Amino acid sequence: MSSEFFAAHMTAAEGEKLCTVEAEAAVSETAFGVRDIRVAEGLPFSESLAYINLTTLEGEKLCVEISGAGFRPVGVFYDDVVGPVPPPKHEGEEELNSGMENYETIYALLSARSSGFRHRFSERLAQRLAQLQEQQLLEECEGEEERKEGGGK
After folding, report:
1. What is this structure's pTM?
2. Which Pfam families match (predicted)?
């Protein structure tokens, strides 16, 4: 089911409740690819608004707002909301539009801001695909053995 379909068919109350769930899920699902991530305890945490604090593998600290609009970096210190935070400028890159930076998922935010996260995410995905392939091969071998034992076809 696509996120547009899901968003179009949920009530406002369901959408608001997702902010608290989304914050907790973001922490547990992305801890592998950041130095630190946690729910912001010093900021409001409600059904319609939540914050997480994180430090990327490169050392960038962010306070991230989670609302119906998505994930938005709002501070460069934990529990600190100052407004939109432009992505760090790397040598050789042009200045990006520093307007409102909203991301649909925590994965999109981290992928845009952290090459280390992208690398770890890719490694993790490759490992999981290899595990699935290995599992599939084992199941195929077991199926072959059962067919041989069951009648020699």
Report:
1. 0.73
2. GSKIP_dom (PF05303)
